[in-house]
What does this fold into?
Amino acid sequence: MLLQTRGCAPTRLLSPFARLFRPYLLQVWGRRSCNVAAIMPEAAGFQGVSDFSELQEFSVSDSESFWAAAARHRLSWTRPFHAVQDCDLRRGKIKWFDGGKLNVSVNCLDRHVHVCPERVALIWEKDEPGSEVKVTYRQLLETTCRLGNLLRRRGVRRGDVVTIYMPPCPMAVASMLACARIGAAHNVVFAGFSAEALADRIRDAQSSTVVTANQGVRGGKVTELKKTVDAAVRSCPSVQQVLVAMRTDNPVAMTAKDVAVEEEMLSEDVACEPVAMESEDVLFLLYTSGSTGPPKGLVHTQAGYLLYAALTHRYVFGYHDGDVFGCVADIGWITGHSYAVYGPLANGGTTVLFESTPLYPDPGRYWETVQRLKINQFYGAPTAIRLLLKYGDHWVRKYDRSTLKTLGSVGEPINTEAWEWYHRVVGDGRCAVVDTWWQTETGGICISPRPSDPDAEIVPGMAMRPFFGIEPVIMDPEGKVLTSKETSGALCIAQPWPGMARSIHRDHQRFVETYCQPYPGYFHTGDGARRSKEGYYKITGRLDDVINVSGHRIGTAEIEDVVNQCGAVAESAIVGYSHDIKGEGVYAFVVLKKGVEVDEADLSRQLKDMVSKKIAKYACPDFIQLVQVLPKTRSGKIMRRVLRKVAEQEFNGLGDLSTLDDPAAVQKIIQGRRDSGAK
Ligand code: WT7
It folds into this structure.
């Protein structure tokens, strides 16, 4: 179970007679203090806190004491902080642990090497089942130091941004930690992004150094990572060097800028002096899509991020020393950052880096991996669960899953059917299933069923409860906080927490406008939520023009930008529609230029090709519908609400169409949708 009440008498086990005397027994056994210490050792000194809900309340009402205790207990500081926080959400000013200095790589490596050098830090679950590679803390520190020295010798300085374009592998993790060691920020770009998308991110980050691998291997297929980097770098004048690690034995053409990582590392020292970083120095950038504009480089900083990742990893999943933690997300997303790398390593844990896919070589892959690696906590995405569910229970039951304790879900709402299957079949009805809600912006999990009393209920398909220090609120469209328990509206967070993003790289104003101004004084998440009469939260999805495809976020405006570049296209509107496996799929309404005639199948192929070249495969439209005009208001704004309904084939209840410039246009679009017969 997640949290043990070691040395305490669980109330459940008391006889009715003993229950009568509970207050007395509690005094005798000292339950008040021992229980809290068992929940969270750092909370032992908090006055008047005796259970989970009181601890949650305390963490919000006296968040300074809470976070100060957590930061002192969980992180190793080079210099102690003098202020816990200095935040003003209205102005987008967010500072935690000011005055404090520390090094993130020391917190993730050195301090564990001192205690248990031979403990396994990483299990690299390579694409071919059975070929996993284990890396101890001592080995990971050595590699990190060599890489840190190499980067330093090649001119990377504190404050520089290093772009990492690699699949999940120890070298990628060592690169992230090497940056942290020498004070550079990393910018990991998901290795499924196209050359152009990579180039956009390198340029915005102004990176002079890129780290990549010769090739990638996923689902039995080889991808040409280095070639993609070559193509990207051609339009990135800032790039001076590309460090190339060898994932496969196949040589790749090297240019004057390229550095053979493994060869050069050999001559580097195995010790590398860590830089003492200020709490609020940048740890990494991570690009993500918004509803408008180009992808934004969210900025996360050192101490607060690491503390939040570590604490959520420990308490949401019930991670204990010696457990094997299996987060199957790619390191190119925030989930990989916080729960494949930083959270587990800060806790001295053993973490799995999953290189493959849920279907390779067959739909039993996840569970065969669980059996072979003896995974205790498994963290995955609803889209994969829905996919595997369709292949049947036998792919799961074939394998021994008795090591599993907690099953996590992230990235999108998990539907009840998938939740039940995850719980009943994968977890044999015995594991806690935690639906965890959070975002790239929040740095770590904000709403999830745990931590809570291990005996407390978990409702299927609900993220349920705020994490320590998180105060969710639900707003009406006018910005009024809805105070009644049972309600729904826009989800905001009422006070800052250490893990939250601090800014958007080179555009703090955009950060303030996007997250701080819509509801002044509150952090605006962009998601809708419902609160039940019990006070539990259910996240209902994005309220803005962001689509969530297989748990990956993409802005409709970004796809429209690409589609509109096609010579035949006059304009387009992209909307999301519900998809069985992906959660949401991409649907494109396209208006052709006057007089242009095209073969629809050709156009569809061309547009898909353009989107996958300019963004990534996952952003490709599933359906393209040609229309004469788009439904627009008289002021020229596309009425996406209507288009979303049409894509869903919900032709009734389209709402108020009176502000439309040409209400008849909608009928034609509906007819087109009916005729297409798609879905
Ligand atoms: C968006 C954030 C968090 C890491 C992976 C995605 C949606 C995420 C849930 C959940 C319902 C969820 C939200 C959020 N989302 N988790 N448990 N239930 N929706 O990170 O790319 O930053 O996307 O994913 O809409 O805003 P991201």
Summary: The chain has 22 helices and 30 strands. The radius of gyration is 25 Å. The pocket of WT7 is lined by residues 288, 333-335, 410-413, 435-440, 463, 525-527, 539, 541-542, 548, 551, 553 (CB under 6 Å).
